[in-house]
Design brief:
heterodimer, A: 464 residues, mainly alpha, 2 domains, two-stranded antiparallel sheet, two-stranded antiparallel ribbon, 15 helices, 6 strands, globular, B: 337 residues, 12 helices, 1% strand
């Protein structure tokens, strides 16, 4: 494997791991904020126990999101120094704003939320969880502003051999950002919804703490349903934008070697043969790709060969086709998870409406297992968008192979790949074990986190 | 207003904030198993930094982001050049944060002991690395004409940098001990005082060794950026004064003095560097400076506007949290960590 391949693998492993956790914490933060709002209006001990219960689970994940984020902030410079030199002028700004505006907000107010139960008023405590929820989403906005530049560079000029920012507001108004951010943010809210609903379903099935968990289930599944439907709609918008901005990504995700017929069918599943450019066992839905691309029954989608030809003409000799098998299946798995999520959430609402949800034991089990669906969908979406951008690191401006650090030896990249991969693996294992442990303990495991200590402590001399 | 200079200053401010604030967090982390004999005592020690350590660390993340935004070449050269050191630092920060979060999530003594060990390691590594990094920044490192670092891992582990690392490790430990002496329950605060006395002279020794060595290795007369004038002298006085203040039982003042030592030393380093960001030992003309490594004026202007709008708000709510959690930690508290 080359240094570029290794550096990509390292970035992929650490980023995917980070992205497994972060949407979950963004979504769970909103669920906690809603639950605390309910508690604030009607503070009962049961509701407080419920809040503490989900708070414990949230904090376990939040810690992992924070620590894996530390690496993200620095690893552009570590493995991708040529990239950092080239785009730092544009790309660094949203990262700095993210740290300044969002990270301080999250870290400060999460501390007030954890430690402040008896130190601040209930209203301020409620504010702090809403600010945490806002901070996590703000962070998503800024990092996706940076990512959108990699997908669709705007607001820059090429000067002194690098991209220099000339219009900050063009970055903020990047059309890519305004499909990518809502899609990702709402997917995150769905992720949190399924997490809380899935955990609540465990207790509903066992018939424990039914009153509280029925409430959290209803809040969460409603969020999940609305978010899942919205995420599909915005995903559709994003696909239509993709046709215009990065048609090659779309063609690769469709394994569309040649430009489609006027009424383009959408391949549901197929055995992809990128080498011979023939797909076998194709199962396709007529007209659907045209609808996906243009909201119309007719419309050609340009194929890989035509785009390759065009890009050679436009950007010089080279191979401009991203890995087809990966993007094809990532796209389909993402769509599948999205529709399954919407179906499950809607079915839950239907059963709830009929008043038979609590008896639907098997269905509740399905809801619990569905916690994994949005997590899978998030990763697949991310893989599609990043792998599908290849061979570019910044679309049309810089190739991934040119972005890598020229002086970092291969051995060093191996060390960090294995080191961080191993470390993340261990942390993931511990986190999962702790999550399971705290779910098993349930809301009773209410450690006395703050027993009303006096504001100014009188020191007891015999205290040891 | 010369924007690259403004950003050089802002990044210096972020590092000053980070090293002052996380300095005592690292010190507390290092001292936890040594000062706390029972689990409840250890929880009380960790509890002193409980509500603040996470936000303190954001100062570093923000400094990283600011370096990227304002001086992309500095970001690229520094982090690709100090690759393994940085990886070690980041791994330590990850382990340390997880150790804090997870140590009390299980009752088994081995579980907690293991995380406490990791907390010490995860706090000691960054405390060492920053002093060593300052040594290398002052001394300069091999950077070629393309702004790429061409040394290896062991280039950075020279005796001068190692002395700097030990000095910062000890200084942060002392800073942490003095923080505990203000915040921890009485019995633990007394132990923290004793620890401060025990490591104080060693800290002073290594600190001044590093300062003296700097006159040779940093070759100040030839390479001096801005004459830091009285700033390092004041830092030295603060260092010496700590012992006398502590002997009179003025704990708050003692903490303020280690803090001042850290702040003034950091300022000295940045003044000595200015206007250079990274000194090349191969050819002075290959050094990274605020002129050849900065973002363009527009980008810096946007960032300046964002910073002067947001930073004051951040400062207000950070100060407010310190005020909110100002009380002494008591052994009777129930601890989150």
């Amino acid at each position: 494997m080359t240094v570029v391949g290794l550096a990509r693998l390292q970035f992929g492993v650490t980023t995917i791991y980070h992205f497994l956790i972060v949407p979950l914490t963004i979504g769970t933060a909103l669920q906690l904020a809603i639950l605390e709002t309910i508690y604030w209006k009607n503070p009962t001990p049961k509701m407080r126990a419920l809040l503490d219960f989900f708070g414990r689970l949230f904090l376990l994940n939040f810690a992992l999101g924070v620590v894996t984020g530390i690496l993200q902030e620095f690893q552009f410079g570590m493995n991708w120094s040529s990239y950092s030199r080239f785009v730092g002028d544009v790309f660094g700004a949203p990262l700095a704003v993210e740290a300044l505006a969002a990270f301080f907000l999250e870290s400060t107010f999460i501390a007030i939320w954890i430690f402040g139960w008896d130190w601040v008023s209930p209203r301020l405590h409620l504010w702090s969880i809403w600010l945490v929820a806002f901070g996590t989403s703000l962070s998503a906005f800024w990092i996706l502003t940076a990512n959108s530049f990699m997908q669709e560079p705007v607001g820059f000029v090429l000067r002194h051999g690098r991209a220099e920012m000339v219009n900050f507001f063009a970055l903020l108004g990047n059309p890519q950002l305004w499909v990518e951010f809502p899609h990702t943010e709402i997917a995150a809210l769905a992720t949190g919804g399924f997490f809380v609903a899935g955990i609540s379903a465990v207790f509903l099935r066992k018939g424990k703490h039914v009153e509280e968990f029925h409430l959290s289930f209803r809040v969460a599944i409603l969020t999940a349903a609305v978010a899942s439907i919205l995420v599909i709609i915005i995903g559709h918008e994003q696909a239509q934008h993709l046709i215009v901005s990065q048609p090659m990504k779309m063609a690769a995700s469709e394994a569309l070697y040649h430009t489609s017929s006027l009424h383009a069918p959408w391949t549901l599943i197929a055995w992809i043969g990128p080498v011979r450019q023939v797909n076998r066992f194709v199962m396709a839905i007529p007209y659907t790709l045209s609808i996906l691309a243009y909201n119309s029954l007719s419309g050609r989608v340009v194929g890989i060969d035509a785009l390759q030809h065009l890009y050679v003409h436009r950007y010089g000799p080279g191979w401009y086709v991203p890995p087809i098998v990966v993007t094809f299946w990532a796209f389909r798995l993402m769509i599948l998870t999205g529709f399954l999520m919407a179906a499950i959430a809607l079915r839950a609402i239907w059963l709830e409406h009929k008043g038979i949800l609590l008896k639907a034991s098997n269905f509740l089990r399905v809801v619990s297992w569905s916690i994994g669906l949005p997590l899978l969908g998030n990763i697949m979406g991310w893989v599609m968008t990043e792998v599908g951008r290849q061979p570019w690191i910044v679309f049309s401006l810089m190739k991934t192979a040119d972005g890598v650090s020229p002086t970092v030896p291969m051995a060093d990249v191996w060390i960090t790949l294995v080191g961080f991969g191993g470390l993340y693996g261990i942390l993931g294992y511990i986190d999962t074990r702790l999550l399971i442990k705290y779910v098993r303990l349930g809301p009773e495991a209410n450690e006395p986190e703050s027993p009303h200590p006096p504001l100014f402590q009188v020191v007891n001399p015999t205290d040891s | 207003m010369h924007l690259p200079s403004v950003w050089f200053g802002l990044i210096a401010v972020l590092f000053v904030g980070y090293l002052f604030l996380e300095g005592f967090d690292y010190g507390v982390g290092i001292l936890v198993p040594f000062l706390g004999r029972t689990d409840q005592e250890r929880r009380a020690l960790v509890g002193t930094i409980g509500p603040v350590w996470d936000a303190n660390e954001v100062w570093l993340i923000t400094a990283g982001g600011a370096i990227f935004a304002a001086f992309p070449d500095w970001y690229a050269t520094l982090f690709s050049g100090f690759y393994l050191v940085l990886a070690l630092l980041l791994a330590a920060l990850i382990i340390r944060a997880v150790a804090l979060e997870y140590r009390s999530k299980d009752d088994r003594p081995q579980w907690r002991a293991r995380w406490d060990e990791l907390l010490v390691v995860g706090s000691a590594i960054p405390a060492f690395v920053w002093g060593a990094a300052m040594g290398n920044m002052l001394h300069g490192v091999p950077i070629n004409a393309q702004m790429n670092y061409v040394g290896g891992f062991f280039t950075l582990l020279n005796p001068y940098a190692i002395i700097g690392g030990i000095a910062s490790l000890l200084l942060f430990t002392l800073h942490g001990a003095l923080f505990l002496s203000m915040k921890a329950p009485l019995e633990l605060a007394k132990r923290a005082d004793q620890a401060a006395f025990r490591i104080g002279w060693l800290t002073t020794l290594f600190y001044f060794s590093f300062v003296v060595l700097s006159y040779y290795f940093a070759n100040l007369r030839v390479r001096l950026g801005v004459d830091p004038g009285p700033v390092p002298v004041l830092a030295g006085f603060c260092m010496i004064a700590i012992r006398f203040v502590l002997q009179r039982g003025l704990r708050g003042w003692a903490f303020a003095l280690t803090g001042l030592t850290i702040v003034l030393s950091t300022i000295s380093v940045f003044l000595t560097l200015y206007p250079r960001l990274m000194i090349s030992t191969l050819n002075p003309r290959w050094s990274l400076t605020i002129y050849n490594a900065s973002s363009n004026g527009y980008s810096l202007m946007v960032m300046t506007i964002v910073a002067i709008t947001v930073l004051p708000i951040v400062l207000v709510y950070q100060v407010w949290t310190y005020w909110l959690f100002r009380k002494w930690v008591s052994m009777d508290d129930a601890f989150h960590y």
